[in-house]
């Protein structure tokens, strides 16, 4: 068994500590590929440089996000909103196709739990040794292994917290202050906070986060249908389960292919028995598939007793079985002491449905309409983000009127308004801008067109006087447009409309 109750006297179901067993196979390898990919991106990205600065830096103090050659400012928040919408739509689409793919392979909780379990195996041994040690006395051997494990966990957690803070504070500066013990109070707090969160979630709570803290397991059901791929136990083929010798004929003994070895339970990171049917605790990691396929190959049985499949595919498979073996439709309800009652009820219901289904293979196809909807929305939102980035102009113009005097007469007989222009250069190199005004023919900038230079990723405050001939003013108050244009590109233009007052 992979789990054991900790408190049998509670009024609630006893909590169980899960000791996942190591397993090898295609799904286990895929999980480790995702661990390497995600962690290389996470730990490596802050150390990349671009134009002499950190390539990815969320500089909250300066209110700028650097993403390689792209610099985002607070007014670009709509792009972040679009990105979050894309992530949500992608999650919905992947869930509709293959269930909890995110949970099984890319979720930080899953990834870091896998890393912490690997450290645990290296310091404490395999799952049987860990169970035996925890059930024994607190001797020197126990303390030696526990201190080694928790020391490695804490070191890794601090590194994780340090890297996370490195996305918000230049990581090279942070590394120098970290090694010299001169970090500021906020950096120290957040490194400790995220390190503690990693240590607690991946080292102690593990599957409890997936079961009770994460809301995704609760609402994933509304995104799944009969065509969604999930990890599924074939109860028709596997039941009734039971042990037998390798040379025995299971059919002659009245047994299914499941030998009740419990390896599917022992390797499960959340400690569930997939043979009881689909459960919200299942994260679709596929480790039980690897474990079961290994046993099937050892016994010489066909693989895929547990497999990634859909209710629709099982229904069609059962239909074929019913057609080929009418005496097996429907299977009788055969409860036993192995916890297979739920699987039996579900299987019987599915075969009864299959007997009435179209044997040509037509079944639920709701997921195709969902995929079309999710795909269309994802394409539209992604396209909108791309268009917004393409047409985005790296300059912003804010106009403020001089509030002390609305208008004043000049010595030359003109009416003058004073404006203060804040020009924000959102590019990473200094730029010169030409200022101009459009409106009635009599309106012009006093002294002609002005030039001003704005530093890279900086701003400049410029005061200008706009004059108008009182004899050619159409109204006491009329709109004008102030414009700044980069001298090195006619496409880098920003405009702002304001009012001109004659009195």
Explain this structure.
This protein is of the alpha+beta class. It folds into 3 domains: 139 residues, no CATH class; 133 residues, no CATH class; 107 residues, Sandwich (Immunoglobulin-like). Helix content is 43%, strand content 18%. It contains 16 helices and 18 strands. Strands 10, 11, 12, 14 and 16 form a 5-stranded antiparallel sheet that branches. It has a 4-stranded antiparallel sheet with strand order 15-13-17-18, with no helix packed on it. A 3-stranded antiparallel sheet has the order 5-6-7, with no helix packed on it. The radius of gyration is 33 Å and the shape is elongated. The termini are far apart.
Ranges with pLDDT <50 over ≥5 residues?
Answer: 5-11, 327-340, 354-364
Strand content: 15-25%
Tell the overall outline. elongated
Radius of gyration computed on alpha carbons: 33 Å
The total number of structural domains is 3
Structural class: alpha+beta
Q: In this structure, how is the largest beta sheet organized?
A: 5 strands, antiparallel
Helix content: 40-55%
**Overall pLDDT confidence:** 84
């Amino acid at each position: 068994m992979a789990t054991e109750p900790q408190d049998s006297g509670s009024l609630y179901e006893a909590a169980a500590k899960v000791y996942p067993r190591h397993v090898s196979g295609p799904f286990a390898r895929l999980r480790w590929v995702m661990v390497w990919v995600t962690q290389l991106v996470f730990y490596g990205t802050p150390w990349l440089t671009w134009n002499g600065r950190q390539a990815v830096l969320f500089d909250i103090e300066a209110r700028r996000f650097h993403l390689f050659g792209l610099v985002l400012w607070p007014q670009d928040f709509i792009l972040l909103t679009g990105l979050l919408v894309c992530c949500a739509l992608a999650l919905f689409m992947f869930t509709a196709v293959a269930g909890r793919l995110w949970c099984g392979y890319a979720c930080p909780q899953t990834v870091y739990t896998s890393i912490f379990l690997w450290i645990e195996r290296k310091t404490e041994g395999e799952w049987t040794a860990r169970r035996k040690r925890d059930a024994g006395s607190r001797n020197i051997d126990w303390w030696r292994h526990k201190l080694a494990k928790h020391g490695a966990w804490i070191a890794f957690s601090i590194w994780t917290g340090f890297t996370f803070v490195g996305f918000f504070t230049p990581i090279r500066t942070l590394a120098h202050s970290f090694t010299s013990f001169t970090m500021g109070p906020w950096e120290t707090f957040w490194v400790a906070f995220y390190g503690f969160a990693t240590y607690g979630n991946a080292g102690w709570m593990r599957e409890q986060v997936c079961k009770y803290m994460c809301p995704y397991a609760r609402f994933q059901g509304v995104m799944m249908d009969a065509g969604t791929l999930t990890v599924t136990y074939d109860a028709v083929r596997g039941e009734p389960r039971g042990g037998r010798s390798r040379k025995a004929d299971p059919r002659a003994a009245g047994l299914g292919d499941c030998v009740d070895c419990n390896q599917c339970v022992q390797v499960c990171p959340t400690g569930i028995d997939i043979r009881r049917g689909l459960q919200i605790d299942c994260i679709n990691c596929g480790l039980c598939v690897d474990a079961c396929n290994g046993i099937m190959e050892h016994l010489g049985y066909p693989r895929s007793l547990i497999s990634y499949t859909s209710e629709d595919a099982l229904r069609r498979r059962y239909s074929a079985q019913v057609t080929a073996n009418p005496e097996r439709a429907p299977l009788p309800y055969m409860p036993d002491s192995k916890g297979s009652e739920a699987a039996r009820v579900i299987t019987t219901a599915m075969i009864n449905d299959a007997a009435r289904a179209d044997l040509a293979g037509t079944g639920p196809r709701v997921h195709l309409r969902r995929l079309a909807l999710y795909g269309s929305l994802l394409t539209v939102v992604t396209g909108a983000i791309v268009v917004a980035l393409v047409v985005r102009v790296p300059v912003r113009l804010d106009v403020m009127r001089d509030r002390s005097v609305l208008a004043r007469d000049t010595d030359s007989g003109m009416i003058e308004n004073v404006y203060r222009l804040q020009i924000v250069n959102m590019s990473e190199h200094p730029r010169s801008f030409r200022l101009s005004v459009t409106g009635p023919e009599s309106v012009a900038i006093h002294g002609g067109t002005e030039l001003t230079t704005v530093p890279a990723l900086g701003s400049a405050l410029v005061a200008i006087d706009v004059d108008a001939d009182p004899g050619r003013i159409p109204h006491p108050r009329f709109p004008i447009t102030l414009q700044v244009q980069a001298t090195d590109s006619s496409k880098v233009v920003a405009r702002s409309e304001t009012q001109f007052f004659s009195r």
